[in-house]
Amino acid sequence: MSEPLKIEMEGQLGSATDALPLVEASRCTGASCDATAAIDFAGRSLCLDHFLPTCIAELESRNDRLRTLSFDAAATEAFKTFIANCAKQAKKLAEDPRFTQAHTKTSLLDFLLRISQLTQHIRRSQRTMSAVPIWLRREDPHQTWHEETWTVSVSRHGAALLCRRPVEKGGTVVLCRKDKGSRATAQVVYSLRDSEGRKQIGVQFCDPINFWDLD
After folding, report:
1. Rounded Cα–Cα distance for residues 162 and 168 (Å)
2. Domains along the chain?
3. What is the mean pLDDT of each run of 10 residues along the chain (215 residues)?
4. Which of 54, 75, 84, 182 could staple 4 via S-S, CB 3.0–4.6 A?
């Protein structure tokens, strides 16, 4: 699959970057590409091999920016709309008789799976800056550990917290509040270094519970 194109975006989470059906037949505008264009993305006519990685790169870039900013309902809704639009166009392409090759179908299905994963990990509520002491435990047959730590921020759906141990995105951890003894299972949705160089992970609860007793 081709490398993602470098397309200049507006740099705003609510920008109007869109995936749109082509009005008329044209060739892909990707570098050294003479394939038939499949879709208009950000004003560029792109073939599938250029559209899919470019769209994923833009989706992940927006998702990363949303995670690092304070919760913004309007920006979150704009991102959801953008995701829904990309998914809609991808589904149309999957049904298009021009794109019936097995590898093309596989690429489109992988793309839709990635979009589904991004949708599940969108922050859904305001975070509250709060340091809650917890025990963090990884329960895995091949890697079991636990450590004492605290949260950086909490929300109804999860938390950001400090973590010294290795844990990959998608991994499952158990949180236990030291003040109350309550436990909750959560999935790791990101892992990064904060401005102070500390390792920080974001987790999303597997079950809908008010673990932090938020109003």
Report:
1. 14
2. 19-120 (no CATH), 128-205 (2.40.10.220)
3. 49 58 82 84 85 85 72 70 84 78 78 74 57 88 87 86 86 93 91 77 89 83
4. 54
